[in-house]
Amino acid sequence: MVADEHIDRALFNVFLTENVYLAYAEQFLLSEQIHAIDINDCLCD
User: Fold this and answer.
1) Were both Cys, which of 1, 33, 39, 42 would link to 29 (CB 3.0–4.6 Å)?
2) pTM listed for this prediction
């Protein structure tokens, strides 16, 4: 999404570093659908 410029790179990094993705997942997904990730693998330079 960042590579295709569908979302701002800085905004995407905030989404990851502030755990917004996890808050969303905890609210809308079943616990068995939530997997641990290493955000360092996903952060954009």
Assistant:
1) 33
2) 0.75
